[in-house]
Structures are given as C-alpha cells and as structure tokens.
C-alpha cells in the first residue's frame, strides 16, 4: 500500500531561517509526494530504508546511509520505502554557494 508523504503541510519556503532540518519515520507503508518544487535546496539523508526521487528525465535512488541533493527550483517527487527514517535539510540559496546539479 502506498500513501502520500505527509509532512503536515510543511512548506520550507515559508521559513526565513537560512537552514531548517528535521527527521521523519515513514511508518509501515510506502509514501509518495506529488511533483513539487521549492526555492530552498534540499538535502535528503536516508538513515534507514530508501528514497527514490524523480526529477526531469532522471530517477535518483538513495540507499540507506546515503543522501541526495536537490537544488532549489527543481521539480521533483519522492517515493519512500516502508519503515524508512529520513532527515531533511532545507538551505536558503543565498546562505551558501551550493551545487546546481
């Protein structure tokens, strides 16, 4: 069974801090998020389980103990395995020079 990834309406661009981080536990079902984008760049670290990020013309698979960088403004969707534990870091583009790819 697959459910929509619910971050309780979290919208990273509403926060004025240069960086915001938090971790989630996916629970017993796979989770998905619809295609979206945000101004802030996003680093996703898979502590346990895995996440697959779909971006234009690419599919990025992130196994446990690895991370993926999604530059700000890039449309993407995510699929999270059951029982995954993930950490998210959202970084304001003006806060630091980050890769664009």
UniProtKB/TrEMBL annotation:
One of its GO terms (molecular function) is DNA binding. The keyword Metal-binding does not apply. Gene3D superfamilies: Jelly Rolls. InterPro entries: AraC-bd, RmlC-like_jellyroll, RmlC_Cupin_sf. One of its GO terms (biological process) is regulation of DNA-templated transcription. Residues 22-91 form the AraC-type arabinose-binding/dimerisation domain. Keywords: DNA-binding. Pfam families: AraC_binding (PF02311). The keyword DNA-binding applies. This is AraC-type arabinose-binding/dimerisation domain-containing protein. It comes from human gut metagenome.
